[in-house]
């Protein structure tokens, strides 16, 4: 982990980045290994209602396809997945970026292939370790034209792509749904703040749970956010 602390053309399909406009890259992450795509599902209608554009990236650190099944997208073309983009990036055979994106209800998605084999996730097919380190910043640059970019994570801090996606994000939402997850989330928050140089402004604690432990400690120590709409008020301003 010590070593980790030291490492750190848009196509016509993608909204063009306006001069002086700043988008917000928001990572949604449950440090206890839970599913943060439920929060994503709550945020996207709010973004659409505000008339803003959004892109979603599901990082395959554990190889678990969640968003496709949540959105009812079980038959994604293999070429329109983050699996294919990772392989092409790793081998220096990238196609035009927009060809990897899957449009769904006014949101452009880069998701894990829902038909991928549990015993053969895409990460075991990569040949270069640097792909895991470089991809988050590459995606951030390619998706600059959107108002919101949501990185949906499923790994731990020891997973390079999860770690560097957290690093690349403007805001990191640490999600806890129940007390056991809350304990793990508090631990991750503390480590990120004290050992990895994340700022209090960057880290956002989120839970809709009404459990007394989460409510009392969250309000006292973490300025806990309990409503998805409140997260969107943390937008990065130009």
Explained architecture:
A 7-stranded mixed beta sheet has the order 3-4-2-5-1-6-7, sandwiched between helices. The two termini are 33 Å apart. 35% of the residues lie in helices and 13% in strands. The protein has a single domain (28-232), classed as Rossmann fold (3-Layer(aba) Sandwich), CATH 3.40.50. The longest helix is centred in the C-terminal third of the chain and has 16 residues, at 179-194. α5 runs parallel beside α6 (160-168). By secondary structure, the chain is of the alpha/beta class. It has helices at 2-6, 37-49, 67-70, 82-90, 130-142, 160-168, 179-194, 212-221, 228-232, and strands at residues 24-29, 54-58, 102-104, 107-110, 148-152, 171-175, 203-206.
The tally of domains stands at 1
**Beta-strand segment tally:** 7
Radius of gyration (CA) equals 17 Å
Instruction: Label the CATH architecture.
Output: 3-Layer(aba) Sandwich
End-to-end C-alpha gap = 33 Å
Major sheet size, sense and barrel closure: 7 strands, mixed
Please state roughly what percent of the residues sit in beta strands, choosing from under 5%, 5-15%, 15-25%, 25-35%, 35-45% or over 45%: 5-15%
């Amino acid at each position: 982990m010590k070593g980790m602390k030291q490492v750190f053309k848009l196509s016509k399909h993608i909204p063009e980045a306006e001069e002086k406009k700043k988008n917000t890259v928001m990572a949604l992450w449950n440090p206890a290994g839970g599913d943060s795509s439920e929060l994503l599902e709550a945020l996207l209608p709010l973004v659409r209602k505000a008339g803003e554009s959004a892109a979603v990236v599901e990082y395959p650190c554990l190889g678990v396809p969640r968003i496709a099944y949540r959105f009812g997208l079980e038959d994604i073309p293999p070429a329109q997945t983050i699996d294919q983009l990772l392989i092409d990036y790793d081998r220096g055979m990238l196609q035009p970026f927009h060809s990897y994106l899957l449009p769904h209800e006014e949101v452009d998605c880069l998701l894990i292939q829902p038909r991928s084999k549990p015993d053969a996730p895409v990460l075991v097919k990569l040949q270069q370790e640097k792909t895991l380190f470089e991809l988050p910043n590459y995606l951030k640059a390619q998706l600059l034209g959107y108002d919101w970019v949501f990185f949906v994570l499923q790994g731990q801090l020891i997973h390079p792509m999860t770690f560097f996606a957290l690093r690349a994000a403007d805001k990191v939402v640490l999600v806890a749904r129940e007390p056991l997850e809350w304990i793990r989330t508090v631990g991750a928050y503390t480590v990120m703040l004290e050992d990895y140089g994340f700022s209090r402004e960057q880290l956002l604690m989120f839970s809709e749970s009404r459990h007394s432990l989460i409510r009392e400690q969250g309000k006292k120590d973490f300025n806990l956010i309990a409503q998805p709409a409140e997260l969107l008020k943390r937008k990065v301003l130009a």
